[in-house]
Amino acid sequence: MSFDLALSGINAANTDLNVTSNNIANVATTGFKQSRAEFADLYAQSQGGVSKIAVGNGVRVADVAQQFSQGNLTSTSNNLDLAINGSGFFVLSSGGALSYTRAGAFQVDGNGNIVNNSGEALQGYPALANGGFNTGGLSNLVLTTAENAPKATTTASLTLNLPASATVPTNPTFDPTDPKSYTNTTSLTTYDSLGAAHTSQLYFIKGAAANAWNAQLYVDGNAVGTPQALTYSNAGALTAPAGGKLTFPAYTPATGAAPMNMTFNFSGTTQFGDAFTVNAVSQDGYTTGRLIGIAIDQTGVVQARFTNGQSTSLGQVALANFANPQGLQQLGNTQWAQTFASGSAVTGVAGNSGFGTMQSGQLEGANVDMTTQLVKMIQAQRDFQANAQVISVTDSITQTIINIHA
User: Fold this and answer.
1) Cis (ω within 30 of 0) for the bond into 241?
2) CA distance 264 to 257
3) Which of 11, 32, 47, 148 could form a disulfide with 306 if both were Cys (CB 3.0 to 4.6 A apart)?
């Protein structure tokens, strides 16, 4: 009997040592979750139940339980390295078969899919054309390499001051090449529907009436319509046109692009003092953009950044959670599979209830404390030695009994 009891203890200590060794071996594995050997005592049972004077039948390994505590986050130089700060798992697909992981070292394959080092595709919600994301189902997250389409300028805004002390130009016939025919000028870059840049020049001409001005638009040296009136109050505020907006006639560029219909907002202009100052000029068009980088925010939204200053949402990384994560089946490669014990996966996005936030440019390390594991290794060794000693003592007793009967 003592042999069997001690043997069960040796087996249990050996399992404990194996679990500890596996934890130590994976101390540098990204997203690894340590395990813990849990034990239970054994008692022989009969129809009448356990005897009150039963000694016991030893020990058994009740479970090797995974511990899903948070690992330390380490910064990297790769925006596609992702870490979850809190609850949740990344969802991976391999030919439609889903698995779950905390290891967020991702890269882009030849088809633009975001994948892990085994080629399994990261799952997310695709972006909708009108904004938002299609949360009705998971799909591969794909990074586009296409250029960002240009946008023609339709509106422009100016914040400037026209000098109240200005006088009517000496040359009454406007000529952009003659500074004596206008009072002040400023320019800005505008874009047509093909993304080609054009220089839009605005000339300001002091009128004969008090507080009266005219604005003349030229694009690439070509006049666009005729001068349009601007009127200011005796306090220097713009009073006309209503709302401060002037719409000039369409300009047809030589690039073959669609006619440019531009409205200029002068509501930010004033007429004070004797100095012409331009504080801000802006417009809503932009040229074609090439992809220069990928950014992922704390909610998992993947955005492509382009050389024209624009950004486009490509999708949102999906996360999954389980009622009982310890019930997940380990698959290796720091991945898990859903089981009956874990419950069904509940999918969502980072930052929502039940899910942690996402950190781009960081990786989650193993949640293994090396000092604790080394102490547990010593304990498992002592347990093994003690049970081995029991076998040695029992053997001596058995030998003594044999010698008595000899």
Assistant:
1) yes
2) 20
3) 148
Place 57 in a pLDDT band, splitting at 50, 70 and 90. Answer: confident
Interval 118-138 mean pLDDT = 93
Secondary structure tally for the chain: helices H, strands E: 2, 29
Residues 159 and 255 in one domain: yes
Residues 379, 267 share a domain? no
Query: 245: which 2 tokens?
Result: 């907006």
Is the pLDDT score of 402 beyond 80?
A: no
Q: Domain of 388?
A: 2-69+367-405
Helix (H, G, I), strand (E, B) or coil at 316: strand
Please calculate the CA angle 250-254-256 and round it to the nearest 5 degrees.
85
pLDDT tens-place string over residues 182-226 = 999 999 999 999 999 999 999 999 999 999 999 999 999 999 999
- Asked if 334 and 78 touch (Cβ cutoff 8 Å), the reply is no
Residues 191, 219: Cα–Cα separation, whole Å: 11
**pLDDT (0 to 100) of residue 146:** 84
Domain end, chosen from 283, 300, 329, is at 283
* pLDDT for residue 27: 96
Residue 69: partners with Cβ closer than 8 Å, 6 or more residues away:
33, 367
Q: Which pLDDT score is estimated for 383?
A: 85
How many alpha carbons fall within 13 Å on the CB side of residue 180?
3
Q: What is the per-residue pLDDT across 31-42, written as a single tens digit (0 to 9) for each?
A: 999 999 999 988
Q: Out of 283, 298, 321, pick the residue that ends a domain.
A: 283
Distance CA 221, CA 217 (A): 9
- CA 339 centroid distance within chain: 28
- Percent of the chain clearing pLDDT 70 (strictly above): 97
Alpha-helical regions (H) of 1-50 = 2-25
Same domain, 175 and 259: yes
The CATH number linked to 170 is 2.60.98.20
For 192-285, where are the E strands, in sequence order?
Answer: 197-206, 212-219, 222-232, 238-240, 245-247, 263-265, 270-272, 277-283
| pTM listed for this prediction | 0.79
Residue 172 shares a structural domain with residue 253: yes
